[in-house]
Amino acid sequence: MASTSKRKVVLITGATGGIGKATALAFAKEGCYDLALHYNSANEQTRNKLATEIKDVAESSSINFAFFQADLGNYDSVRQMHKQATCELGDIDILFNNAGSNGGQSGVQSLADVPIDVFEQSWRINTGSGILLAQLCLPHMEAQGWGRIIFDSSVAAFTGGVVGPHYASSKSAQHGFVHWLANNVAKKGVTVNAVAPALIGGTNMIGDASDEEAQKKIAQRIPVGRLGRPEEVAETVMWMVKVAYVTNKVIGVDGGYYPH
Predict the structure, then answer these.
(1) How far is CA 180 from CA 19, 174, 247, in A?
(2) pTM for this predicted structure
């Protein structure tokens, strides 16, 4: 097992969204991580706001972080983003594949309503790019005998969900990959897991849920009676990073929605 004294580098995809932002701040509070923060289309104002929040909560004034743009539907863009991040911050020790897309479609009522191209693009963004990043990051993790790979899945992978078949099928594909890879690298000091949130406030996956009345209706489906908070997903991710005996798991963060 390699020494754990050096600062670890964390790559978070979709870092400017609700869960990505909460997770970036959770790592910043620890003070021993440098952050490679991916974004697709977030404007400069959004990125600057997150940068200010990171500086405000960071335990260490020496924390390094930088933003890296990539279209996760384009594998060449993903490769370039990984290259830029490692050149600037160093090899990736922790990969949080958080970014996701509903393809602009939610509340789908018929399979016929989702073009096959939307399925393909959803898979690339939600699953394929995460697998590619795992391929790119694993050699360093295996060489040092320590690494963490975490996917942000969804309760939709268990239940079908409320977004649509393109989204649910892309998320369930993550689970099969997690199980295979976790077994493959378990003896190499690398853990592989996923979080599976239900309906989380501050995300854009649940259609018109920005409307207060719609949120109340959605919350009624959750046993605890409310939407989840991005910080609750972030804390689960941090637990997965810290506990080396947790691997090959898909942990629901869903307010009791799906018992398993």
Answers:
(1) 25, 10, 11
(2) 0.93
Is residue 192 within 8 A of residue 174, CB to CB? The reply is no
**For residue 122, what are the contacts with CB-CB under 8 A and spacing of at least 6?**
101, 102, 103, 166, 167, 169, 170
Right CATH for 8-253 from 3.30.40.10, 3.40.640.10, 3.30.420.180, 3.40.50.720: 3.40.50.720
Q: 């964390």: which residue's tokens?
A: 10
Tens digit of each residue's pLDDT (9 = 90 or more) over 168-213: 999 999 999 999 999 999 999 999 999 999 988 876 555 444 556 7
Q: For residue range 113-166, what is the model confidence (pLDDT) as tens digits?
A: 999 999 999 999 999 999 999 999 999 999 999 999 999 999 999 999 989 999
Residue 64 dihedral angles phi and psi, to the nearest 5°: -105, 135
Q: Is 200 helix (H, G, I), strand (E, B) or coil?
A: strand
The residue type of 158 is F
